[in-house]
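Thought: the user wants the 3D structure for the chain below. I'll pass the sequence to the structure tool as-is, report back what it returns, then summarize two notable features.
Action: structure_tool
Action Input:
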Amino acid sequence: MKQVLRLLGFGAAALIFQGVLAGVLPPRMCPDLTFLVVVATGLCAPLTSGLLVATALGYATDLLSNSLLGTHALLFAIAYAATRRGDRKLNLRGNLPRAIFVAFLTVAYALGLSGLGWAFGRTALLSLALVPSLLLHAAMNALAIPFVSSAVVHLAGAAPDEEIGRRLLRFDPRRPGAWRSDSLR
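Observation:
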């Protein structure tokens, strides 16, 4: 329970800091810190406590962003589940794989947010004019994830990446196109 409270406190602080940062920098230059806390929680927190943190931070984001209630909560829960699944299948323990995963997940999150807003008649679908801003925002999230994830791992009380004992994804040169990971055996 202490782990959940620490992660919720850190997520709330990230939400407040993100609001302050958005007042200083252009929105596309601000990393989505609350989203990154949810993704980092998916790397180290157990299923029930991680879903609780993701959903609570999603509802807080919904309340502060004036969006449909439950939109961010749903997408944060999906992002948490995708991170857990991606970590199991792709082994996201290195900074580069984690950054690439976060960049793709940021784009998927924006498309999901746009799609849900369109489905409920609140917003139009994402226009092609916003694609450069979205890609810049995804790059900013990718640059910020190593710092946020190390803070979340520290707060969650999990072992750092080097002490996990899992190896990064290895390619087997003897079989073209084949890959293996010690975690998938």
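Final Answer: Structure generated. Strands lie at 170-171, 179-180. Residues 160-165 have pLDDT under 50 and may be disordered.
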